[in-house]
Amino acid sequence: MSDSLTLSPLTATVLLLVLVFAGRAFRQNWKAQGAFWRVKAWAYGLAAVIAFAALAFLQVQA
């Protein structure tokens, strides 16, 4: 693979935090089901999925 498809440890840490906080916000939003909860759920869910995919499929530099 190309070197451009790697994550620095700092970027990987930030993506992990985005994954955790977006996943938590998704869950809380789903349980509360307030105003525009579906739109918010999609936004939080997409952020979590993108962060997960980046962590799962890109290598972290050592």
UniProtKB/TrEMBL annotation:
Provide the alphabetized UniProt keywords.
Membrane, Transmembrane, Transmembrane helix
Q: Which domain of life is it from?
A: Bacteria
TM segments?
A: 41-60
Protein known as: Uncharacterized protein
